User: Fold these one by one.
Assistant:
Number 1:
Amino acid sequence: NPTVQSLIDALRTEMEQYGEMLARLDEQQASIVRFKGDEVIAAGASIEAQAAEMNKARTHRTDCAQAVARDLKCPDETPIQEMVVRLHKDLRPLVTELVRENNELIVRIQQRSRQNHLLLARSLESMQRMIDCIAPASPPTRYTPAGRAEKVFRPQIIYSAVG
């Protein structure tokens, strides 16, 4: 059945896109850990581009699944797992395995995304603490003889030479 083969091909393509996303998230994580800001920014752009490809693959797979559902006289929104029992017995294990692998990759992508987010947040917090030590966020306020508040900007010595 050509529609079932299209679904199988779409599931494989989707799996490839998920694998590529996982690889890009791994690259981003390595850049974060090495404190390579330029690489982190480049990885972010790469991840956004891959997300678009991933969504295209997911949309195509959804379209293929709907076509299979129509061929099987099921509603368009029937999950693939429910359609598997109506497929030829030789195709069931393959489709089941592709769906399982895609679902596992989605979970891994979500986990890696959360890890990267946490690493980035910790890095930003650390940088903010360092900045706060060097230059406090808000300058002190003083009042003029007329009673108006004004900020006092005093240069701070960050480095003092000895000798």
Note: The first strand starts at residue 141 and ends at 143.
Number 2:
Amino acid sequence: MQKLICPIQHYLWGKEGDSSLVSQLKKAVNDQYENNLPFAELWMGTHPNGPARLHPHGQLLTDYLANNSLFLGKHEKGGLEFLFKVLSVGKPLSIQAHPTKEQAIVLHRIKPNEYPDDNHKPEMAIALTDFELLCGFKLAEDIKTTLFRLPELLEALDVVQVNSIGKFENPDVDPLKKVFCAVLEGHSTTMPAIIRRICDRLNGEEVASLTDTEKLILRLDKLYPGDVGVLIGATFLNHFTLKQGESVFLGPNVPHAYLDGDCIECMACSDNTIRAGLTPKYKDIETLKANLHYDMTGPIKFAPEDKKDHILYKPRVKEFAVIKYDKNAKVLNNVGAASILVVIGGSATIMGSTEVTLSRGEVLLAPATESSPKITDISDDFLCYRAYKPGNEN
């Protein structure tokens, strides 16, 4: 077993200083670092945009695995197929979706600067604190109710199409797609002025009279004035909060944006993002329009499996699964694959081929060959998450 040194991503949306869980974890293992930056993401894996290294000598994890194949399971393809993260979100990320494997290959070929990987990016978020997000399309009646409360926007749309949302199943004539795309297409022309008119009206009303959606419009516009994401996020997408331990799974082409809070995130090893709004970065409107899933489901949470001494988050993807351990853990169960563990709180000792004591902020690489080592000396506040590639569990 090997402890890892893992890099931080200082994206502008991250929480700053000690308010960031990512910063707290970093500080727990190394107090010699800049504290006046946003601490957005802790990356644990081998992606070239943020590769982990072995502690203490700094060898790249990628190189170590290439030269130590016994660390990997029989079903692993020469390296880690997942990217494991801790996120601390201080202000909204972009509204985005991720391509399928086939779409990623094409996008990487034609726009390599915007899509650096030829891989898809299914991902899972597990809340560590209250975690606020936008995810998937609202139910049809909720979308229509919101639109009819925004006359400034409604006058720019086809009211017949708005009334027809939810009444057609043919994707070629889906009214939701037509209305949503009409808003997107005005991102640099009509929508900024419409957003300004809406916000001017809402700011003149009593706060107590505003709906949650109207309050969200004002909140997002303060951060991204006139951005089309203000409308598509608040008007069309489900807005909800995960409690600690709750999770969502985001398959290809599902629109989403994280708004606030801390989470564990695991995904296929990719950094591909199709952005639509709430960002100054490149918005690939045409790609998003063509590929988005327009299913109106309402909020959908992912249900993990309670395994008595651990909780298993195992979506229907081949690249990753996540295990949660707390003070009730007895063993590091045999998953038959290389795995990465991150300690969020407390401490414990793993009695494997080598004895390793882990405390808050530490990250460990465990080999596929470890056969259910015991976990001892567990503190009452112990909390640990583990990512691995499923398919070879014992």
Note: Residues 2-135+241-279 form a domain with the Jelly Rolls fold (CATH 2.60.120.10).
Number 3:
Amino acid sequence: MNVNSKVRVFESARTGAVARETIGPDGTVRRSNETRRRTGAIARGLTSVGGVEVQIVPTHRPYDVQLLEGIHDPDYIAFLMSRSETLKVGEVVYEHEFIAREVQPDTPIVQGVFSSALAAAQCAAFASRVAVQSESATYALCRPPGHHAGYRFMGGYCYLNNAAVAAKTMRDYGISKVAVLDIDFHFGNGTLDIIKRQKDMMFGSIHCSTKKAFPSLGYEASAQAPHILCGFESEPSESEYLATIDEILSCFMKNGSEGLVVSTGYDIVKDDPHGGWTIQPEFFKLIAERLPQNGPVCLVQEGGYALESLAECSRNLILGLTRSETAVSE
């Protein structure tokens, strides 16, 4: 990756048809924190860095469902598509068979949500292809997120796994071995479920591993090499976190990784309603500076719900990617 070149940012055109409610840990229905305001704040931070613009990816076409082949079970795709298209406005479905083990049905199906999820997956695929063709870094500003969506299940605001789609796209475009690094506060249970079924793909995760942290599986999750899971029961120091990133990236390199997808979650910062750590937004600059400077890198948006901090998080991440020190004037 040429660190002096600008990072290309892509966003899907459809970002509205998602559920406005969810079910909290106590089992009660509450307002969802996964809103359009998130992507707006993140985009402001990204474009505050000189030369960075957001490009809208054209609305998906029906045959783009092919992007999901090998990523999600055909029965799951058919179910989600059918329910999403047949529901009336205002109808919400929680209970169904496509839910992860030991995870409550917290993610509702509403009218049009499959189209939004597919558009997000298409955005990830588009950004990944550009990263390969340009041998540079790209950013897929996806909504809804995807790393809790597994081969045959949804959950945690996630319906389709955008990071897995990005990884598959890299492989389809000639990258022989692809790695996925997940830096979201929450364990990417869906991504691991998919990646471990794939050949020539690796998964590494840094996450909170307490029982209270969704999906409440991180504390007991395990994976065989070359996958590596690094869960913290208490908040790591900055040096511990960065050392863990170095360890995972080193593992990827030793196993022949040629392309990297980064599931990017900003929910590790202080005051995130779905987090619990006290990391500052400026830390994302240090994280980004750890990422490879050579070969394709595709960052895919996952969590991050502290609206007042999101712009600073994304701004610092781009500054780290471009090895830049300044942003454009407000």
Note: The chain has one domain: 8-322.
